[in-house]
From TrEMBL:
It comes from the Bacteria. This is SPOR domain-containing protein. Residues 105-115 have a biased composition (Low complexity). Residues 1-45, 94-115 are annotated as: Disordered. Keywords: Membrane, Transmembrane, Transmembrane helix. The chain crosses the membrane at residues 65-88. GO terms for molecular function: peptidoglycan binding.
Amino acid sequence: MSSKNKISISFRENQRNTNQTVKRAKDEQAASAEPDDDKEWTEKPKVYSLPVPKKKRRPSAIKPILVSTATALLISFGLGFLLLRMFVSLTDETTNGSESMPVPATSTGSSTEETATIGTSTLDGYVIQAGVFSTEEKATEWKMKLTASAVSSAIWERDGQYYLFVGSAGSEAEANEIADDLSARDVETYVKPWTVLSERTSIEGVEAEIAEQVGDYVEDHKMNELTEEQRQAYLLTLEDKAPDSPLLDLFKNWESSDKQQLNWIHASKAFEEITE
């Protein structure tokens, strides 16, 4: 074959195409990996600011003053109300006491003292007798036996004899009822009439005032209607003004629960001793 008819095959074109393909792939890969410079410059950077502390409000000086003033007013009104209640209560007690309590007599002179006259005509009744003894020791012994059996009693000395009474009444029928009740408790009794005071006498001062007031209860045989407040007032008055009065023993020996009406016995005995 001659040199004119030779066929030449070149690989440079293929190599060029291959190189272009590889370069294009690298460019695409780099484009996908690298950030867009234009986009980065267009986005605004985020700015972070420190929190600004809030200013603390200063406490108002008016509010504590108002609270203190209101509290002081409430306390003042409360104390004023309590004092008013106490004053009204004391006034009422004083008023009621002056109506029902005895007023001690003055001792400046006999012309200003009250005088009371007492006698036999006002003090009669029935007594329930548990025994009569010639000596006080024997009467006291039996009195203690009755006390051990929860039975109240009173000793009354008259004409050298010591009578042991366990009750009294304004009528014989009432006295028999008390006697029957005591008999059911194995206490032997005897009902009989009893007259107090053998002669009339006059007394003065505090003793006269109290004797006149208590005498009405004794006469009607209603000693149980005498209130505890009255008894305490009489007791304090006699201890202060007439400590030697027989009436003082009446209020010292007072029976609080007096179903047997022994207070009438104590009162009648005191009146009889005043006349001696």
